Amino acid sequence: MSLYDVGNGNLKTLYTRGSIHRMITLIDPVSNEGRPKGSRHLALGRRGEELAAAYLQQRGFRIVAANFSLPVGRNRLGVLINVEIDVVAYEGETLCFVEVKTRSSDWFAAPEVNVDRRKQRQIARAARAYRRMFGLTNAPFRYDVLTVLLPTADERRADFEIQLIRNYWTDAALRKRYRPGAYWD
After folding, report:
1. In a domain? residue 169
2. Which partner for 88 in 65, 100, 108, 161 could form a disulfide, CB atoms 3.0-4.6 Å apart?
């Protein structure tokens, strides 16, 4: 299944033809049938990314890449670190790197809480590499987080929530602070 294909229809067509609530009933609920055990969370994430792409397109974003993955370096043990950017899109002239977080509930914590400093640094490194690869080093850019709350198939609800948080962090917030001398008194 590609990013926009859902069953026999096209997700974008389904999204623009009817309301969000109608679209969710047209998409099959997340189930474990025919899948190995433990892949339910992967299906939930895939479904969230499909809805996120449709939501961004409806809002006027122009999607240029989805699930863009590249190596960004090695950790202390020498293991290669691969980072994935969920959606790369343009809103006007601004290049947006969007991290999609999908949850079935926000009972424990909001989905955007899981985009911690470590994840922000990884995405920022991948975004720098992306901008260098395509010669976009001087282009305006920002980091967004899009949260999707989907009910599970057991809850029998058809409503879901999508929230776009623009400019969730900046590169300036990730810079290491160097203090000359001792920083304690």
Report:
1. yes
2. 65
CB proximity list for 16: less than 8 A, separation 6 or greater: 58
Domain count, the chain: 1
Identity of the residue numbered 131: R
Helix (H, G, I), strand (E, B) or coil at 83: strand
Region of 78 (left: φ > 0; alpha: ψ -120 to 50; beta: rest) is: left
Quick one: DSSP state of residue 95? E
**CATH number, residue 49:** 3.40.1350.10
Q: What is the DSSP string of 25-38?
A: HHSPPP--TTS-TT
For every one of its 185 residues, what pLDDT tens digit does the chain have, with 9 covering 90 and above? 333 434 433 343 333 333 333 333 333 444 444 444 557 777 877 888 899 999 999 999 999 999 999 887 888 999 998 989 999 999 999 999 999 998 877 767 777 877 888 889 989 999 999 999 999 999 999 999 999 988 766 655 567 789 999 999 888 877 776 666 666 65
| DSSP state string for 118-149 | HHHHHHHHHHHHHHHHTT-TTS-EEEEEEEEE
